Amino acid sequence: MSLSRHYEKHGQVEAYELAVQAQSYSDEVLKRLPQLPPDARVLDMASGTGNEAAQMAAVFGSSTKIFEMDISKQAGGIQRNFVLGDLETQVFAEKSFALIHIKDALLHIKNKNKFFEQTRNMLLDHGLLLVVMQFIPEKKQINMNQYIIIHSSNGKKFFDAPISIFGKSQNSVQQEIDLIKQALREKGYTNFQVSMPYYPSSVESLTGIAQKNGFQRDLGLVPETWTPKKDEKNWFEAERGVLLFKKI
């Protein structure tokens, strides 16, 4: 099952329209980044509805040019210099950006070596890569490869139903999705969101991959974790790890 097929579903449901609009993300993460050079170019990879791109534009100021890249135009976004592309293909020239930002998307990419290789090529010398995502501690590693998750809500709480797609046909996976949705609807759940496959990492393993591909981790500039406040709109409220890498 292709990433684009999952993502088309992902971008069409109402739950996805509640993508992060948290002021805390600007205050606790973006505003703590090192000052960017004048007229810097910034890329928001997997930009989705464009909320993070809008926040970066507000934080970095009008002299910074923000670019958005996503696998699907149906994701929405604010169309600020929007380019269609995926996380494993280099779609910009080498040394194009002072900062590349990716949030809640890298865990869907299996070939993380390819991701770091391509992002390094697109960064200026000593450019920054900000990765924000859920991590699984090394001692709690579980095999979630080739899983998707159905997210839903009943107005009061969320429910996540994981489905293994390993070795299954597209039709059988879709039948399983439909059965789970039907059961959840009977219990009052709506706003379904079908995720892309998950390929989670620990902080240690992702840092190791980054180092092999010419990055070093910058510590102390941004918090190691970030969690949206409960009263802020967010389609996915879990704590994220925050990693800032510098091209070397």
Number of strands: 11
Q: Spans with pLDDT under 50 lasting ≥5 residues?
A: 1-22, 141-145
Work out the radius of gyration: 18 Å
Q: β content, as a range?
A: 25-35%
Number of helices: 6
Overall geometry: globular
Coarse structural class? alpha/beta
- Tell me the distance between the termini: 36 Å
Percent of residues in helices comes to 25-40%
The main sheet comes to:
8 strands, mixed
Secondary-structure element order, N to C: HHEHEEEHEEEHEHEEE
In brief, what are we looking at here?
With 248 residues, the chain is an alpha/beta fold. It has helices spanning 3-12, 23-28, 51-60, 112-122, 170-186, 203-212, and strands at residues 41-45, 65-70, 82-84, 97-103, 123-133, 147-153, 158-164, 190-194, 215-217, 225-226, 240-247.
What would your notes on this structure say?
- The protein has 248 residues and is α/β, with parallel strands linked by helices.
- The strands form two sheets. Strands 1, 2, 3, 4, 5, 9, 10 and 11 form an eight-stranded mixed beta sheet that branches. A three-stranded antiparallel beta sheet has the order 7-6-8.
- Mean pLDDT is 77; it is low at 1-22 and 141-145.
- It has helices spanning 3-12, 23-28, 51-60, 112-122, 170-186, 203-212, and strands spanning 41-45, 65-70, 82-84, 97-103, 123-133, 147-153, 158-164, 190-194, 215-217, 225-226, 240-247.
- It has six helices and eleven strands.
